[in-house]
Amino acid sequence: PGTLYIVPTPIGNLSDMTERAIRTLLEVDYVAxxxxxxxxxxxxxxxxxxxxxxxxxxxxxxxxxxxxELLSNGLNVALISDAGTPLxxxxxxxxxxxxxxxxxxxxxLPGPCAITTALSGAGVAxxxxxxxxxxxxxxxxxxxxxxxxxxxxxxxxxxxxPHRIMHTLEDIYQTLGDGRELVLARELTKQFETYLYGNxxxxxxxxxDDPNQQRGEMVLIISGxxxxxxxxxxxxxxAQKALAILVQELP
Length: 251
Ligand code: SAM
Prior knowledge:
alpha/beta; 5-stranded parallel beta sheet; 9 helices; 39% helix; binds S-adenosylmethionine
């Protein structure tokens, strides 16, 4: 059978195509793309003559069968999304899981992804993190999701959109309070790449003062929950407490 290649594409800077990604797009018979009109210039730029198939959120189930057929017939297919790594808040899960179930070869290439770019550039704790994708569009649901993360101790990473960022910051203020450090990583790898730092109220103020900062593509990072120090868990503090009691008893 042919191989399904998962090929990341740039998230804003065309030079971020890897050599291997270019070579793969040149060698495959078909490229399955989220939006064929959007991806045509990229294929032209690298000189790929592969035929394009539209595979997006709304037809992934149906198109998966067609792509599996091509693979079974020995043809090679590359899956790309509009930007970044396929399957990361983008289509591809159905086809990759089917290929794995049926033993068809899948090769995933590493490459551009907004999560890793934001995390590696922000200067936040990255030893453990939780990717939360996009928060729900409905305010009630969004607040519930945030409330469920109130005691998440890992760094949290969200994808956000310009028309929802102010509501999200407001919801964070209401559900998680104003004690969290936030980072808004905007327009990564592009001309106006910006990292904004602050707690929820500071970022709300900043984005109100300069509405340009509400625009573009953005990743929101929330620092993890740190439990308040409980004296009973701290041997030193316990000893100090005991000493204080003893001192009172001294003549
Ligand atoms: N698959 C992509 C990836 O690997 O990053 C993500 C696709 S998702 C549909 C699009 C979201 O990714 C945007 O709404 C934004 O949150 C984030 N994103 C993509 N490119 C970005 C960039 N250049 N700067 C900041 N965030 C970006």
